[in-house]
Design goal:
It contains 15 helices and twelve strands. By secondary structure, the chain is an alpha/beta fold. The protein has two domains: 269 residues, Type I PLP-dependent aspartate aminotransferase-like (Major domain) (Aspartate Aminotransferase, domain 2); 144 residues, Alpha-Beta Complex (Aspartate Aminotransferase, domain 1), CATH 3.90.1150.10. It has a seven-stranded mixed β-sheet with strand order 1-7-6-5-4-2-3, with helices on both faces. It is globular, with a radius of gyration of 22 Å. The structure holds pyridoxal-5'-phosphate.
Length: 438
C-alpha cells in the first residue's frame, strides 16, 4: 500500500495520503480496516518463505497488519523517520522501545520530569526486570554525562516534561548521547509531529501515546515507535543487532533490515513475543486522527494561548506555566523547539492552595475531570492527588508537582465557553476558602 513517490510531499498532504494509495483490488479510497488475525498462504513454499523471512508479507496480526501498516508508514513519513511499529498503548511503545535495547544488568538514563505512568514503569517494573533506570535533571548536561557508563543503552526524555513542562534541549542531549555511542529516545506525545519533529533535532527513536492528540477524540488506547534509521547499531554497544538469530534464518537484525534494524527487532522480537498488538480498528481510528491532526493542533494551540493569557490575568490564579506565554522562563526554548506553538497542555496554581485547587476541580461543569490529555474536549486534573500521587513529596517536588497545581488540556470548544467555566470554578474555589476560614 505504500507509495514511495509520495516521499517529497509536505506535512498536510502526508497526513492525508502517507502510506496509502487507492486499493488495487477494491478501489477503496479510504484505508480499509483489515480486521483479520491471519492471511492465506499461496502454497507451502510461500508459507515457508514468509516464516524464514525471505520475503515480505503478512502471516499473523500479532506482528503486522495492513491497516496498522498504513498508520506506521504515515507516522514514519510525518516524523521524517525510516519505519515505525504501532502497538497497543503508549506504555507498550515505551516498554518495547527501551527493552529492545536494554536487558537485565543494563542501564537507561532518563530525565526526571516524566509522565506518571512512565515514572512507575521505570522505577518499579524495569527495576524488577533488572534494568536500572537512572533519573537525572535533563537540563543539566554534566549530570546526564556523569550518569553514562559501559552498561548504558539509551538516553530518554519527553519533548515537554509532565507536568512541569520542561522543554527538552534535544540538540544538546542528542550530542551527549551520540558522543558516547548511545541513541536518544524521545516521547513526543505532547507535541505530535505537527509541533515538533524530534528526529530533525537529533533524536534516534520517537515514541508516542497515540491515545492523546493523534487519536484526538479520546476513543482508543494505542502507541507507536518511530525509528530515524540513522543510528549505528554496529558500534560495539549493541551486539544483539549484529549476531545471527535463529528466528531470522540465521541472519542478524542489521542484515534483515538495513533501513530500520531497530523496528525489525522491536517487531519480531518483543513485539512478536510479548504480543502488545494494536487492534486494526484502533489503528484505523488513529489514521482518521492523523488526517485532521494539522487542523486540530493548530486550533488546540490557538485556544491554549488564549486560555493561558486569560488565566495569567485572573486574580484567583497565582501562576501560569505555559512555555508559549511571553515572560515564561522557557519562552526562548519554546521558540526554538516549538515554533508552531507550545502545545495545549499546561499548568496553573489556584489561589488558596490545596483546598482551593480541589474545589476548583469539583466545580468545573464543561471541563471534564479525567486522567487524560489531548482530547478534543477540555480536561482538567489535580496531579498531586492523582497522576503523580504515588510519588513521595520530594519526588513530586523534583518532577514539578505542587499542591495548588491544576493541569489543563485545552480542547476545541469555543474559547469563550472554556473561559466562562474556568471563571465560575475559580469563584467557587474562593468561596470554599472563605467558608473554611469563617
Ligand atoms: C499517556 C502518555 C503515555 C502512556 O500512554 P498510554 O497510551 O496511556 O499507554 C506516555 N507518555 C506520555 C507523555 C503520555 O501522555
Amino acid at each position: 500500500m505504500s507509495n514511495e513517490s509520495y516521499d517529497h510531499l509536505k506535512f498536510n498532504t502526508i497526513a492525508q495520503h502517507g502510506g496509502q494509495s487507492i486499493d488495487t483490488h477494491s478501489k477503496a479510497r479510504a484505508v480499509p480496516i483489515y480486521q483479520t488475525t491471519s492471511y492465506g498462504f499461496e502454497n507451502i513454499d510461500h508459507a515457508a518463505s514468509l516464516f524464514q523471512m525471505q520475503e515480505e508479507g503478512y502471516i499473523y496480526s500479532r506482528n503486522a497488519n495492513p491497516t496498522n501498516r498504513v498508520l506506521e508508514k504515515r507516522m514514519a513519513e510525518l516524523e521524517g523517520g525510516a519505519d515505525a511499529f504501532a502497538v497497543s498503548s503508549g506504555q507498550s511503545a515505551i516498554t518495547i522501545a527501551l527493552l529492545t535495547l536494554a536487558k537485565i544488568g543494563d542501564e537507561i538514563i532518563t530525565t526526571n520530569a516524566l509522565y506518571g505512568g512512565t515514572y512507575t514503569l521505570f522505577a518499579e517494573t524495569f527495576k524488577r526486570f533488572g534494568v536500572t533506570v537512572r533519573f537525572v535533571d535533563g537540563r543539566n548536561l554534566s549530570e546526564v554525562t556523569k550518569a553514562i557508563n559501559e552498561k548504558t543503552k539509551a538516553i530518554y526524555t519527553e519533548t515537554i516534561g509532565n507536568p512541569g513542562l520542561q522543554i527538552a534541549d534535544i540538540k544538546a542531549v542528542s550530542k551527549v548521547a551520540h558522543d558516547h555511542g548511545l541513541p536518544l529516545i524521545v516521547d513526543s506525545t505532547f507535541t505530535t509531529p505537527y509541533l515538533q519533529q524530534p528526529i530533525a533535532f537529533g533524536a534516534d527513536i520517537v515514541v508516542h501515546s497515540t491515545t492523546k492528540f493523534i487519536g484526538g477524540h479520546g476513543t482508543s488506547i494505542g502507541g507507536i515507535i518511530v525509528d530515524a534509521g540513522k543510528f549505528d547499531w554496529a558500534n560495539g554497544r549493541f551486539p544483539e543487532f549484529t549476531i545471527p538469530v535463529p528466528a531470522l534464518n540465521h541472519r542478524s537484525y542489521l542484515e534483515l533490515n538495513t533501513e530500520s534494524a531497530f523496528i525489525a527487532k522491536a517487531r519480531f522480537d518483543l513485539g512478536q513475543n510479548l504480543g502488545m498488538s494494536l487492534s486494526p480498528f484502533n489503528g484505523w481510528l488513529f489514521i482518521q486522527g492523523l488526517e485532521s491532526l494539522p487542523l486540530r493542533m493548530k486550533q488546540h494551540v490557538e485556544n491554549a494561548k488564549q486560555i493561558a493569557g486569560f488565566l495569567d490575568e485572573h486574580e484567583l490564579v497565582t501562576w501560569v506555566n505555559y512555555p508559549g506565554l511571553v515572560g515564561n522562563e522557557q519562552y526562548e526554548l519554546a521558540n526554538t523547539y516549538l515554533p508552531r506553538g507550545a502545545g495545549s497542555i499546561f499548568t496553573f496554581g489556584v489561589k488558596g492552595g490545596l483546598e482551593a485547587a480541589k474545589t476548583f476541580i469539583q466545580s468545573v461543569k464543561l471541563l471534564s475531570h479525567v486522567a487524560n490529555v489531548g482530547d478534543s474536549k477540555s480536561l482538567v486534573i489535580h496531579p498531586a492527588s492523582t497522576t503523580h500521587s504515588r510519588l513521595s513529596s520530594d519526588e513530586q517536588r523534583i518532577t514539578g508537582v505542587t499542591p495548588e497545581q491544576i493541569r489543563i488540556s485545552v480542547g476545541l470548544e469555543d474559547v469563550q465557553d472554556i473561559k466562562a467555566d474556568i471563571h465560575q470554578a475559580l469563584v467557587a474555589s474562593r468561596e470554599a476558602k472563605l467558608t473554611e476560614q469563617s
